[in-house]
Amino acid sequence: MVYLPRKKFYITTPIYYVNDVPHIGHAYTTIAADVIARWHRLKGEDVFFLTGTDEHGEKIQQAAEKVGKQPKKFCDEIAKKFKDAWKALDISYDHFIRTTDESHVKAVEKALQILYKNGYIYKGKYQGLYCVGCEKYLTESELVGGKCPDHLKEPEVLSEDSYFFSLSKFHTILLNKIEKGEMAIKPEVRKNEIISFLKSNKLEDISISRSKVKWGIKLPWDENLTSYVWVDAFLNYVTGIGWPNKAFEKYWPVDLHLIGKDILRVHATIWPAELLAIGLKVPKQFFAHGYFTVNGQKMGKSLGNVVDPVELSKKYSVDAVRYFLIREFPFGEDGDFSEKALVNRINGELVADLGNLIYRVLTLAERYKGKIEGEPEIDKNLDIEAIDSYIENLELHNAIESVWKFVRYVNKYINEKQAWKLEGEELGNALYNLLEACKVISILVSSFLPETAEKINKQLGVKGCKLKDCKFGKFTGRIKKGAYLFKKVE
Ligand SMILES: [Zn+2]
Fold first, then answer.
1. How far is the CA of 229 from the centre of ligand 1 (A)?
2. How far, in Å, is the centroid of ligand 1 from the Cα of 58?
3. Number of folded domains in the chain?
4. Which of 144, 159, 226, 346 could form a disulfide with 127 if both were Cys (CB 3.0 to 4.6 A apart)?
């Protein structure tokens, strides 16, 4: 085998802001991270998969007030919705971090103290456009015709005492690390965007405190101010594995920060600068995936086309949703989501290829009473190294397509052999090949379609295995044919 397992593999999703309930966009990132995490576990690596929720700030404070709830109670409810959604979608995270966790809050206070002591935080004046109606600062891009779109009033220019983080000091070192690949950014097009941004702009210091936001972590040296998102939220990636406890070194630096492309720039600049300022190593790799439209339209609450991934999985099965999201769009690029395309994938690939294969093989196996043994004939068509390298390169769509090539090949083998006409030893040999192929396919699909893999194993009477077991050996299962794996959608 060419692929080499690492000792450890640490992967994260962004922490999701609790001003919104989980939608298909959150699910996309999280399912992709889950597939990658499961694959690395399959390789025998010590995997840590972190996800969670970002719970502080003005928007949450206001959303909670609006429904007459304490912010913490409001966050508890939304965080639970995320946890429930990940359970429904078979997400195998190792830890779910919430930025209101006491251990996180303590760690952020500690980080702020270190940054302050190391001379990377200084006092200045923050100036912004403040809308009295919203009770918050608005960015230029939020204004419509110079006015707050909700209150139709021009915001006031307001300033307040604030603390700043010396991001500008890290400009050159960050550019260097990105260019040298010491901190990898993928896909290549995104890396180039960040490099050209850094070459044509100078990183500016950022305000890290707010005086008007009560729902946040207080600055240890000035209790009238709360920490702004930049320090609080990013820190989850280290506090989620135990920092400042030494134990976090087991997994740090992170192997893969999986994020959406809109948050890449802040992730690739502010976050590593903070790490360097604290005295920690920068992330090994960022991967920014694309976004999808829904039936050709941008997804949004106002358009009423927000897709609920849990509802979708109830309607079509979890694995159908997981399969579709990974298979339909080249990972890293934008795509379009439609139920029609989902149904096509279900009927054309899950039912007609995989479901059909397992059903045919088990039907043959059940009526055969002889010995299932023979010579491996079809394992040559299996290229596990190729599948593994697709996943290493984060070409998840190509990885699953390669598995499917083998599934289709095995179906073809049944047809060409006319296996249903065989008898005796010849049938025993064909069945040996087919059952071993199904066993291997079950291992290979287990990261993508965990529920389906379990169903296949049950029917084959075998246990789930590691990637190293993905080879033809002796068939030792106890056949028990079950129902079709997938239902055809009319
Ligand atoms: Zn307003």
1. 21
2. 13
3. 1
4. 159
Which ranges of 251-350 does DSSP label H, i.e. alpha helix? 264-278, 309-316, 318-328, 339-345
Residue 195 lies in a domain: no
What residues pack around ion ligand 1 (CB closer than 5 A)?
131, 133-134, 148, 150-151
Cα(62) to centroid(ligand 1), Å: 12
- Cα of 207 vs centre of ligand 1, distance in Å, is 21
* Ligand 1 centroid – CA 158 distance (Å): 14
Classify residue 471 as exposed, middle or buried by CB count within 10 Å of its CB (0-12, 13-18, 19+): middle
Which amino acid, residue 335? G
Retrieve residue 428's tokens.
């025993």
Give residue-wise pLDDT tens across range 413-457: 999 999 999 999 999 999 999 999 999 999 999 999 999 999 999
Residues 6+ apart with CB under 8 A from 114: 277, 278, 279
149 lies in some domain? no
CA 149 to chain centre: 33
Closest CA to 446 of 42, 1, 48, 45: 42
The pLDDT profile of the chain, 490 residues, written as one tens digit per residue, is: 456 667 999 999 999 999 889 999 999 999 999 999 999 999 999 999 999 999 999 889 999 999 999 999 999 999 999 999 999 999 999 999 999 999 999 999 999 999 999 999 999 999 999 988 888 888 888 899 999 998 999 999 999 999 999 999 999 999 999 999 999 999 999 999 999 999 999 999 999 999 989 999 999 999 999 999 999 999 999 999 999 999 999 999 999 999 999 999 999 999 999 999 999 999 999 999 999 899 989 888 778 889 999 999 999 999 999 999 999 999 999 999 999 999 999 999 999 999 999 999 999 999 999 999 999 999 999 999 999 999 999 999 999 999 999 999 999 999 999 999 999 999 999 999 999 999 999 999 999 999 999 999 999 999 988 999 999 999 999 999 999 999 999 8
CA of 134 to the centre of ligand 1 (A): 4
CATH number reported for the structural domain that contains residue 393 in this entry:
1.10.730.10
Domain range enclosing 377: 339-469
Beta bridge partners of 288: 259
Written as one letter, the residue type at 407 is V
- In this structure, is residue 343 part of a structural domain? yes
Name the token pair of 399: 């990885």
* pTM greater than 0.90 (yes/no): yes
* Residue 318: half-sphere exposure toward Cβ, Cα within 13 Å: 17
Task: Give the active site residues.
Answer: 23, 26, 131, 134, 148, 151, 298, 301
- Residue 138 CA to ligand 1 center (angstroms) comes to 8
Q: How far is the CA of 257 from the centre of ligand 1 (A)?
A: 34
